[in-house]
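Request: Give me one sample?
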Amino acid sequence: MVCDQPFVSTDLINKLVEAGSQNNMAACKYNDAVGVPVLFNFEYFEELQLLTGHKGAKKLLLKYASKVLSLPFSMGGVDIDTPEDFEELDGV
């Protein structure tokens, strides 16, 4: 999970945890892709520890795309990276 997605809710996290209990990998779907927040089963922890770079776990999502259970998160593409992004958030 990252900290710059203002529309992540407890409901979304609860759904992600529920989906993760039924599947080894659960991710949110937005902007025609899957992404964070993501829940990985422990079997992926070794591979997660070896990841580097800012794309991080995206590599595993692509590698195991057929195993990912995706949850719709329509506002997942909204993130806050700059003070200007925060100011624009008021209009979303």
About this structure: The two ends are 21 Å apart (CA to CA). The longest strand covers residues 33-40.
